[in-house]
Structure formats: C-alpha cells, structure tokens
C-alpha cells in the first residue's frame, strides 16, 4: 500500500521511501523516513495535495510523491503529537520562569 492510498484520519508506518536522487533526499530531509508514523489530516479541495502529520508537524505532499512511499497501516499511533500547541505551552512556561527571576 502507498501513502497516496491512506484515508483521512488513518495512520501508518512508513516502510520504504522511493524516488531517486534529489527527490528521495528531499523526502528524507523532510522526515519521511522508514519507521516514521504518519496520519492523513486532509486532502486539498481538488484532491491534490494531501496534508499529513509526521514527527509532530504538518507536511503537504503531492499525490504523485505520496505514491512513491510504501506504508503499513496501523490502528493507532504509538505517540500522540499535539503539534504547535505543546511548543507554545513550553514557551509560556519558560517566559513565566524567566520573568519570576527579575
């Protein structure tokens, strides 16, 4: 099964990353690596591209690119990523701690 075939709200583990040369390296640089867990968030109104959550951030991929990534569907992710929400809370805590020292 490829990433292109994964439905909205479903999760999977990346098994292999296709493509050649610069395209494959671009996938790897974006964190699309074997063993990574991904969830499909949504598709654009015309169906292409698709938005994924991977490593706690959102990534948009064209369907032609997603078709080069093989996956194994899973029932649920092992880690729940909250995205920027956690980062913002950490920043607020840090700001409060720093301001209490003055």
Question: Describe it for me?
Answer:
The radius of gyration is 17 Å and the shape is globular. Strands 4-3-2-1-5 form a 5-stranded antiparallel β-sheet. The chain has helices at 21-29, 63-66, 84-100, and strands spanning 11-17, 37-43, 50-54, 57-61, 69-74. Mean pLDDT is 82; it is low at 86-97. Helices cover 29% and strands 29% of the residues. The chain is an alpha+beta fold and 102 residues long. The protein is built from 3 helices and 5 strands, in the order E-H-E-E-E-H-E-H. A hairpin with a 6-residue loop joins strand 2 and strand 3.
The main pleated sheet reads as:
5 strands, antiparallel
* Number of E-state strands: 5
Question: Which percent band covers the strand fraction?
Answer: 25-35%
Distance between the termini: 56 Å
Envelope shape: globular
Strand order of the largest sheet: 4-3-2-1-5
pLDDT < 50 runs, ≥5 residues: 86-97
The DSSP helix count reads 3
Helix/strand-derived category reads alpha+beta
Rg result: 17 Å
Helix content: 25-40%
Sketch the topology as an H/E string, one letter per element.
EHEEEHEH
Overall mean confidence score, pLDDT = 82
């Amino acid at each position: 099964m490829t990433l292109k075939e994964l439905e909205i709200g479903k999760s999977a583990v990346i098994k292999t990353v296709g493509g050649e040369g610069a395209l494959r390296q671009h996938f790897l640089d974006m964190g699309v690596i074997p063993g990574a867990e991904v969830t499909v968030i949504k598709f654009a109104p015309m169906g292409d591209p698709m938005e994924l959550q991977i490593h706690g951030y959102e990534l948009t991929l064209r369907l032609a690119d997603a078709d080069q990534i093989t996956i194994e569907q899973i029932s649920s992710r092992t880690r729940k990523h909250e995205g920027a929400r956690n980062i913002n809370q950490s920043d607020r805590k840090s700001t409060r701690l720093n301001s209490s020292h003055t």
